[in-house]
Design brief:
This protein is mainly alpha-helical. The strands form 2 sheets. Strands 4-3-5 form a 3-stranded mixed beta sheet. It has a two-stranded antiparallel sheet with strand order 1-2. Strand 1 and strand 2 form a beta hairpin. Helix 1 packs antiparallel against helix 2. The longest helix is centred in the middle third of the chain and has 34 residues. It is globular.
Length: 328
């Protein structure tokens, strides 16, 4: 196996042809898990595309809230497409080798859209905060233009910071093991294989992980505390129930995304009570399940999307019934 050698600032950098992903090699019944992943991916693709289509072609859903929901659906679709097909390919073809450049691309895409997922949930909390706490000024504060600007800023931040983190991986030399103990080209497991100093990478990954998880979660918690204060000031019980009912689907998504990740980080990384194999399995599940569940929750719990989806189904049935048939 030939290594690419590059000279930067009078120092020799050694880049391998690629890495071997070995996160699932020792797990039992892994065949069943990959079948489950295939099912998860099919559901992710179908429901997220349905959600995007219903929002895009139903003009009554062209509101700030559903712009944020559609944004989350696009993120979910790309996030699972980034990792699940590569995991299934490893299982079907029995080839766990990932070329160096492709490894960096996967790393960039995954962390960009994982960041956008976290920020997307925070944006939906902001939408609920404005709608419930400032109902009279909602349409002047939370407009399509302002929501588009917020989404644009989050995309710019996520893509820009992740591009920087990924680019500095090229400053590392890999001259020993090339086996990555994870389910994809994960940032920390890759830089730990380097044979030169990776203190910068470790520091940035630690800070970035905290910002990715704790920052949006704190904003979501503070938003819902403000919402609860506003709700309990309402005189009518019916108004309270109606206001809280609009938050149910978002709270489900927040719980599905944050609780597994925080549990794994607290128990696995700090208390070290999780077996490494089980930690990789848990992390892969916590990455793949939310993008699958999100569109289902919004499709079933949101009246506007449910109505739009049913109208689409009726339209397809009518078009099939009135389609011209060829004479016998």
């Amino acid at each position: 196996m030939s290594f690419l050698r590059t000279v930067v600032n009078d120092s020799l950098l050694i880049h391998p042809p690629g890495f071997y992903i070995i996160g699932f090699e020792t797990l039992r019944l892994i065949n069943l898990y990959f079948i489950f992943l295939a099912f998860v991916y099919v559901v992710t693709v179908l429901f997220n595309i349905l959600l995007i289509y219903v929002i895009a072609f139903n003009h009554s859903l062209h509101t700030p809230k559903f712009l944020a929901v559609g944004n989350l659906a696009v993120i979910d679709l790309i996030l699972n497409t980034c990792i699940i097909p590569s995991m299934i390919k490893t299982f079907l073809v029995k080839d766990n080798f990932v070329p160096f450049n492709l490894c960096l691309v996967q790393m960039f895409v995954y962390y960009s859209f994982a960041t956008l997922e976290s920020l997307g949930l925070a944006i939906l909390a902001y939408d609920r905060l404005i709608a419930i706490c400032f109902p009279l000024r909602q349409h002047s504060i939370n407009t399509l233009r302002s929501m588009s600007c917020i989404l644009g800023l989050t995309w710019s931040y996520s893509l820009g910071t992740t591009a920087f983190f990924t680019s500095i991986m090229t400053r590392l030399s890999f001259c020993n093991s090339l086996k990555v103990f994870s389910y994809f080209c994960d940032y920390a497991p890759v830089f730990r294989l380097a044979c030169n100093d990776y203190t910068l990478h470790w520091s940035l990954s630690s800070v970035f992980s905290l910002l990715l998880l704790i920052g949006p979660l704190i904003f979501i918690i503070l938003s819902y505390l403000s919402i609860l204060v506003t709700v309990f000031r309402m005189k009518s019980l019916q108004s309270r129930v109606k206001a809280l009912a609009t938050c149910v689907e978002h709270l489900i998504l927040v719980a599905v995304f944050f609780i597994p990740l925080l549990s794994i980080f607290m128990i696995g990384f700090h208390l070290r009570l999780i077996d490494p194999d089980h930690r990789v399995l848990s992390l892969s599940l916590s990455s793949c399940i939310p993008p699958c569940i999100n569109p289902i929750v919004y499709s079933l719990k949101t009246k506007e999307i449910k109505t739009g989806a049913l109208a689409l189904v009726r339209k397809i049935k009518i078009s099939n019934n009135f389609s011209p048939t060829r004479p016998i």
